[in-house]
Amino acid sequence: MIDPYIAEFIGTFFLLLLGAGVVANVSLKNTIAQGQSPWVLITSAWGFAVFVGVFITGQFSGAHLNPAVTFGLAVAGKFSWTLVPGYIIAQILGAMMGGWVCYLTYIDHYRLTEDEGVVRSTFCTGPAIRNYKNNFFSEFIGTFVLVFGVLFIAVPNIEIKGMVVENFGLGALQALPVGILVWVIGMALGGTTGYAINPARDFGPRLMYQMLPRKNKDADWSYAWIPILGPLAGGALAGFVYTLCI
Known about the structure:
- α3 crosses α7 (132-151) and α4 (84-105) packs across α9 (199-210).
- Helices cover 64% and strands 2% of the residues.
- It is mainly α and 246 residues long.
- A two-stranded antiparallel sheet has the order 1-2.
- It has one domain (4-245): Glycerol uptake facilitator protein (Up-down Bundle), CATH 1.20.1080.
């Protein structure tokens, strides 16, 4: 049985490797898919990336793969607060590793790409129009939809760290439905900020980008709080509203 923290690391690794990989594939110079219907490819691949991560790890950790999901489930009383710190750390580290391996995969194309904005976009999100209040709301509402949807679909409980835990993670959605959920969030609500809807997905690769040996890099840390606090707030409200509904 895989340790749940290792499972969260592995699942988030696959999520970022495949999700960041599609952005690199359509954005970097001289890739085969450069300029090929990027939004359709990006939203589809992110949905499928979630499917892969959930399918691999759902039975071991519930496959949260997202601190906002972990936080929201804890607020709703569906997940133990004692497990929250370990889950979030594992998710961030997995996201960092996923971004790093994506970079290694496309390293020749990264070397050819001079536009640092394009390079940064393969690691982390950014707003189409920089308006912090509206950007925050976009991340907030997208994550609210995600976590609220998660809370209304469940399968039997699983055992984590010797405790029986209600299986309300992304793994409770049996992989394919949660991929579809993330897909439709991206298609419908993702055009404003690139729909991080996941603090680990944005912060981990952004930190990895900051560590790259590139000239003129700009990780845009002035914006980085939006895809962290927006999703956490959205996930927390989803958990709270769920408790009111039930």
